[in-house]
Amino acid sequence: MTVYQATVSAPVNIAVIKYWGKRDTKLILPTNSSLSVTLDQDHLRSTTTSRADESFERDILWLNGKEDPIKEGGRLATCIGEMKKLRKQYEDANPNEPKISSYRVHIASNNNFPTAAGLASSASGFAALVSSLAALYKLPSSPSELSLIARQGSGSACRSLFGGFVAWEMGSATSGTDSLAVEVAPREHWPEMQALVCVVSDKKKGTSSTSGMQRTVETSTLLQHRIREVVPKRMEQMIRAIKDKDFTTFAEVTMRDSNSFHAVALDTDPPIFYMNDVSRAIIATIVEYNRASVAAGGPVKAAYTFDAGPNAVIYALEKDMAEIIRLVCYFFPQGVSFEDPMGVFPSGVQSGVPEGFDVNVVKVAETGSVSRLIHTRVGGGPRVLDDSKETLLAQDGSLKV
Amino acid sequence: MTVYQATVSAPVNIAVIKYWGKRDTKLILPTNSSLSVTLDQDHLRSTTTSRADESFERDILWLNGKEDPIKEGGRLATCIGEMKKLRKQYEDANPNEPKISSYRVHIASNNNFPTAAGLASSASGFAALVSSLAALYKLPSSPSELSLIARQGSGSACRSLFGGFVAWEMGSATSGTDSLAVEVAPREHWPEMQALVCVVSDKKKGTSSTSGMQRTVETSTLLQHRIREVVPKRMEQMIRAIKDKDFTTFAEVTMRDSNSFHAVALDTDPPIFYMNDVSRAIIATIVEYNRASVAAGGPVKAAYTFDAGPNAVIYALEKDMAEIIRLVCYFFPQGVSFEDPMGVFPSGVQSGVPEGFDVNVVKVAETGSVSRLIHTRVGGGPRVLDDSKETLLAQDGSLKV
Q1: Residue among A27, A43, A81 nearest A343 (CA)
Q2: Among residues B264, B18, B233, B286, which one has the least CA distance to residue A264?
Q3: Which of A13, A20, B293, B397 could pair with A36 in a Cys bridge, judged by C-beta atoms 3.0 to 4.6 Å apart?
Q4: pLDDT at position A114
Q5: ipTM
Q6: Which residue among A222, A256, A276 places its CB closest to the CB of B277?
Q7: Angle at which helices B247-266 and B209-219 pack, to 10 degrees?
């Protein structure tokens, strides 16, 4: 008996031009285009195994070892349904292929990073879901075509269908068929691009991005200006900066757009705050770091960006990352030793401040204010894994434990 | 020998439509109109004594007991010089009046609130300076005329020339002659309007409003939209709300405009943050307080607003203020007992939360996060005091100690 199964991993992406606001909440069509850097799956990934079998009685999804109900008409059901439709089309065009589109599916998905880290796992999760079904169904679809479906699971998931530098073009069709991800440049174009994720703990429960962005659409008086005037220019600037490998412009646009996004969140009624005092201190650290570099005739060397939470992601080039990690460890003392997946500090991090940096600008935070640092880099798109080794499902199609 | 001297006190004002951005930094002409409530001088005031004397060798100003240098071409020199010009015109028109416009002046000014409280003392200070010179010079100038001069000392000072509810009309003349304060309504129109100043300590040194607002003008992509589209509509709404004594609209516009101002500060490069985690918690408290009231069929009862610092000012009507003080004392335990200038709590504050308030929305802060509460109300304009009793200068014209 043939087993129809595939296992795929998909990456996290962190936007440098932010997505905030939907013009269609069902199809998840955004009010502006956005652009992200895909992070390396060696460090952060979602892995998903999908299997189709005639004997399965219903579609089931296990997320991190726990069943996640597939609600009728919900986002999971939409993605799975759309993928089955594509398989059906493929079967109709290729009559010799097995008719598995009518089978129920069992899907198991894991993230290799703790949910508590506050990293958006929905992007990598839905990208892995769609990619694993595409592999199972042997679909000829391009990543952009698959991004149309991932988008309906979680908007920013569409950008995780590509590696490197990825734009989500907002599109204009009411059907959403032109609201998809495209590659701006592959990871190989600018492999020196790295990222340091600073996990910031927060006592306050945040506003979910889904409800937050709709409140912004409904109440902010500044959002429309951001959408119409600010973002389109920044998209052009950012695409040019990436193509030219112009880190200064990349960094300046990244920081400004992060602030612009948090500004419209604050302009919401009631206001939405995602950054806290530790986030503010990270910004102050990076601002002073760049100021000191530029004052000494050097370049802008780092860019902060914040999603819908207090965590910072610092983008920098490989050459500067060791200095930045030492700096962050100086002002945000780590309770645990720095995991060093890329082997930057063979004998451990010696925290410190670069020459010319005014230490009075930032106060040393309490140990653990930044609870974890994740050093990674620009990475590739979804990977089809060796299912015989990486499967998350047991032989009988139940969750492997 | 005649002593030419006058002592005047002037009030603090807290804007409900914020001033942020200058179109002329020398004349202090704003990029948008603004509107404020004048607070009661019984609680918060600057007091200034001015004396003109032929024997004085130079203009001197003492601020809170310390000489404050009057720099040539600076804001103090401008205000004093403009007032002397008005006196000269008055003398030319009234030849029998003594020719004191050519005399040097000694000026002593005090605030009755600590600078450490982080309240903008420049508004009350420049209003008291200009008013005391106007009294000394016996000028027939109207408050609006004097506001033109106070404006050149500190923009928001122009609004402290009136009591009650005051608009600063931005004007359009390049000379600044139409950028002045006007009364929207006197305090007697809506005497129930009260304010609770929550003094929030902050470890981080803030950005001065003078430099901050210029950076916003230079770098924010959202400010122009705020100036052109958002504020003009809000000015109309707010004037109407005050004339109608419509607290719901007053509160909603106040909170939205505070957030809009902080949003454009955040949209500045590098970003400017004035609110901290305690400020955020105060906002969350007021949002939940209003939500609970509205959910129970009641009205919006409180409005927060934040100037260029972490302190909150909560506007509310007299009938609700006791409940609000109890609520604030519950979530922000006071290290010192509440000064109760209006005798709301004859036997001390019993902190507590009103019915329907979800206590899980806000965490109780560390004692002293809000270091002081000042309960006050809408107040009147500058007052000419009995100089024989209130003078800040000694008989010989030196600082009284």
Answers
A1: A43
A2: B264
A3: A13
A4: 73
A5: 0.93
A6: A276
A7: 80
Nearest-by-CA chain B residue for A270: B287
Domain boundaries, chain B: 4-186, 193-377
Classify domain A4-186+384-390 at the CATH class level: alpha beta
Calculate how close chain A gets to B288, using CA atoms only, in Å: 10
DSSP state, B373? Answer: E
Options 3.40.250.10, 3.90.650.10, 3.30.70.890, 3.40.50.150; CATH of B193-377:
3.30.70.890
d(CA A106, CA A223): 41
pLDDT tier, B114 (very low <50, low <70, confident <90, very high otherwise): confident
User: Would you call B142 exposed, middle or buried from its count of C-beta atoms within 10 A (0-12, 13-18, 19+)?
Assistant: exposed
Within 8 A of B206 by CB-CB distance, chain A residues are none
Angle at B202 between CA B196 and CA B204, to 5 degrees: 145
Residues B65-86 as b or e (16 or more Cβ within 10 Å = b): eeeeebeeeebbbbbbebbbeb
Second-level CATH architecture of B4-186: 2-Layer Sandwich (3.30)
Q: Which of B260, B271, B287 sits opposite A270 (nearest CB)?
A: B287
Task: Tell me which chain A residues have a C-beta less than 8 angstroms from the C-beta of B273.
Answer: 280, 283
pLDDT at A117: 62
Rounded to the nearest 5°, which phi and psi values hold at B399? Answer: -65, 130
Q: What residue type is assigned to position B214 of the chain?
A: Q
Chains A–B, number of C-beta pairs less than 8 Å apart = 87
Residue B378 CB partners (closer than 8 Å, separation 6+): B37, B38, B39, B40, B163, B164, B165, B187, B190, B191, B193, B194, B195
- C-beta separation of B252 from B300 below 8 A: yes
Write out chain B residues lying below 8 Å of A281, CB-based.
Answer: 204
Distances (CA, A) of A336 to A117, A233, A330, A371: 14, 42, 14, 8
**Are both A4-186+384-390 and A193-377 of the same fold?**
no
Chain-chain contact of A280 with B284 (C-beta, under 8 angstroms): no
Mean per-residue pLDDT pooled into runs of 10, chain A (401 residues): 95 97 97 98 97 97 96 97 98 96 98 74 95 98 98 97 98 98 98 97 78 96 97 98 98 98 98 96 98 97 96 98 98 92 93 95 94 96 97 96 88
Nearest to A222 among B203, B222, B271 (CB): B222
